[in-house]
Amino acid sequence: MRVACEVNGVAVVREVAPGATLLDFLRYDVGLTGSKEGCGKGECGACTVEVDGRLVTSCLMLAAQVEGRRVRTIEGLGEGHANLLHPVQAAFLECGAVQCGFCTPGFVMAAAAVVDACARHGGRAPTAREVEEGLEGNLCRCTGYQKIRVAVARGVEIAAAECSRKGRDGAARAGTPRTIRKGDAR
Ligand code: FES
Ligand code: FES
């Protein structure tokens, strides 16, 4: 069967087996291997991606279900941000929260949703409960959660700084006098 959707802002059309999962579609048909398969049962969060702005475990979703929809993966998360890093990616690097690399893509997707929600509410800090709830679908089986929690808080700070920088740049551009060219209407 044919699936047509948008992945990280790019139109994608592929032939897939009727029972193919979204995770297999992304990894093997589209070639985006950032999302990982941990449990394959919806329990670990390693395969987390966004579909139409909502987090999903892509191992439990069929590729056919994203027909006509927008998918965002870890590979597209930094689009539009400084150095092509979402604030939460920058924070994970800064705080040493990139641990085994297997669970990390899923944790980053979940943490980014928490940070983006805070950014939409004026860059306020998330409560401890919001962080716990935001990350509750993601499991680490080895290293622990503390650095990840710290990175979420730092990601909110980086997002707020990025937001005010963009605001300043936008205001500066709006205030730049336009060059009058010969032939412009007076
Ligand atoms: S691989 Fe999808 S939740 Fe574990
Ligand atoms: S499973 Fe990735 S750091 Fe523990």
List the helices and strands and how they pair.
Layout (H helix, E strand, L loop, with lengths): L1 E6 L2 E6 L6 H9 L17 E4 L2 E4 L12 E3 L14 H9 L8 H17 L7 H8 L10 H29 L12
Parallel strand pairs: 1-5
Antiparallel strand pairs: 1-2, 3-4, 3-5
Helix pairs in contact: 2-3, 2-5, 3-4, 3-5
The structure holds FE2/S2 (inorganic) cluster (2 copies).
The site of one FE2/S2 (inorganic) cluster has 8 residues, from loops.
Tell me what you see in this structure.
This protein is of the alpha+beta class and 186 residues long. The chain folds into 2 domains: 2-76, Beta-grasp domain (Ubiquitin-like (UB roll), Roll), CATH 3.10.20; 82-174, Orthogonal Bundle (DNA polymerase, domain 1), CATH 1.10.150. It has helices at 22-30, 87-95, 104-120, 128-135, 146-174; strands at residues 2-7, 10-15, 48-51, 54-57, 70-72. Strands 2-1-5-3-4 form a 5-stranded mixed sheet, sandwiched between helices. A hairpin with a 2-residue loop joins strand 3 (48-51) and strand 4 (54-57). The N and C termini lie far apart (58 Å). The model is unreliable at 177-186 (pLDDT under 50). Residues 37-40, 42-47, 57, 59 line the site of one FE2/S2 (inorganic) cluster.
CATH homologous superfamily annotation of the largest domain: [2Fe-2S]-binding domain
Roughly what fraction of the amino acids lie in strands?
5-15%
Main sheet: strand order: 2-1-5-3-4
Bound molecules: FE2/S2 (inorganic) cluster
Write the CATH architecture name of the largest domain. Orthogonal Bundle
CATH class of the largest domain: Mainly Alpha
Number of domains: 2
Measured as a percent range, the helix fraction is 25-40%
Q: What name does the CATH topology of the largest domain carry?
A: DNA polymerase, domain 1
What is the tally of beta strands? 5
